[in-house]
Amino acid sequence: METFAFYFLSISIALLFGVTVMSKNILYAMTSLAAGMVLISGLFFILGTDFLGVVQLIVYVGAVMALYSFGMMFFDATGNIDEKHKDSRVVFILGGLSAVVMVVIFAAPLMAEHAHSFYPPVEGATNPQAVGLVLFTKYLVPFEVAAIMLLVAMIAGIILAGKRMDESLSKIEDSELAESSAKDDK
Amino acid sequence: MIGLGHYLVLSAILFSIGLVGVIRRKNLLMLFFSTEIMLNAANVAFAAISSYHNDLAGQMFAFFIVAVAASEVAVGLGLLILLYKKRGTLDLDKLTLLKG
Predict the structure, then answer these.
(1) Which of B5, B10, B77 is opposite residue A10, by nearest beta carbon?
(2) pLDDT at B37 over 60
(3) Of B43, B51, B69, which is closest to A64 when you measure between CB atoms?
(4) How many domains does chain B have?
(5) Is residue B98 part of a domain?
(6) A40 near A64, Cβ under 8 Å?
(7) The whole model's pTM is what?
(8) Quick one: CA dihedral A75, A80, A86, A87, positive or negative?
(9) Which CATH number do you get for residue B58?
């Protein structure tokens, strides 16, 4: 059963992300990306890392993809995007080679059995409890730093996106817009 | 039976899909999507190693990757919106400022 679930999830994730990378339509790309993220959380549940799966669902599917879909309001996302593609064989060869390199990098210490367990889960604790125990002792400082980083990102997002939010771009004439952006450049 | 190797290969495949996207696409928004794919691929590898080696450090790193990805999206999307307001396009070929 686990084998079936793994293969089903991984093949669908690869296909969905392939659609994301290859699609000409931004909305299709975004939808398949969100679906792939949901399925990745399924992989986390199979692995027994329950809390990470929940975080994946809440943060990635709930927050990041919702942010992208709200961002779509500002972009012209209905039409197809036309891009000039040069010879893409090089791209695929480079991508495949880097995949091989990444497998070697990850697998080498495991094959050589240099990987030690520093923080084994506490006996009898469920996964969220064990995660909490490590997160709030050994990783407390990075946790707080991450909180500050998120605060900085929130303020930056508000300032960047909220600038001139009260003006509608479709009601401004083109010449006026060019003038004001030239003024902004100075 | 599914071993650690299966998950690592899956993560490498997903990472290369994301990398192909980053190299191939010319639209900035699609570059952001591809970056998300690459971050997720790394998360899968971290979670798998953490689970198979019975060590929680991998999951911790995956959490911090999620936090970094969230803040990256917040700032990056704000910048993209500003850029789109200013230039009216997100195509990298049209956004070249240096003429060389």
Answers:
(1) B10
(2) yes
(3) B69
(4) 1
(5) no
(6) no
(7) 0.84
(8) positive
(9) 1.10.287.3510
Residue B64, in any domain of the structure? yes
User: Which of B9, B47, B81 lies closest to A160 in CB terms?
Assistant: B81
Cβ-based contacts of B53 with chain A (< 8 Å) = 110, 115, 117
Q: Among candidates A153, A121, A146, A155, which has minimal Cα distance to A51?
A: A121
On whether residue B67 sits in a domain, the answer given is yes
**Residue A160 to residues A168, B79, B80, B85: CA-CA distances in angstroms?**
16, 6, 9, 11
Tell me which chain B residue has its CA closest to the CA of residue A11.
B10
Residue of B29, B45, B57 lying closest to A106 (CB–CB): B45
**A110 to chain B, closest Cα gap in Å:** 9
d(CA A119, CA A121): 6
pLDDT tens digits for range B40-88? 999 999 999 888 888 888 899 999 999 999 999 999 988 888 888 888 7
The ipTM (two decimal places) reads 0.91
Decide if B68 and A20 are in contact by the 8 Å CB cutoff.
Answer: no
Instruction: Give how far Cα A142 sits from Cα of A12, A120, A121, A127, A149, Å.
Output: 34, 19, 19, 20, 10
The tokens describing B74, both together, are 């917040």
Q: Chain B residues with CB inside 8 Å of A66's CB? A: none
Contact criterion met (CB below 8 Å) for B48 and A6: no
Domain limits for position B70: 4-87
Q: Is there a domain that residue B95 lies in?
A: no
Bridge partners for B27 per DSSP: B91
Q: How many residue pairs from chains A and B have C-beta atoms closer than 8 A? A: 227
Query: Which 3 state secondary structure label does DSSP give B27?
Result: strand
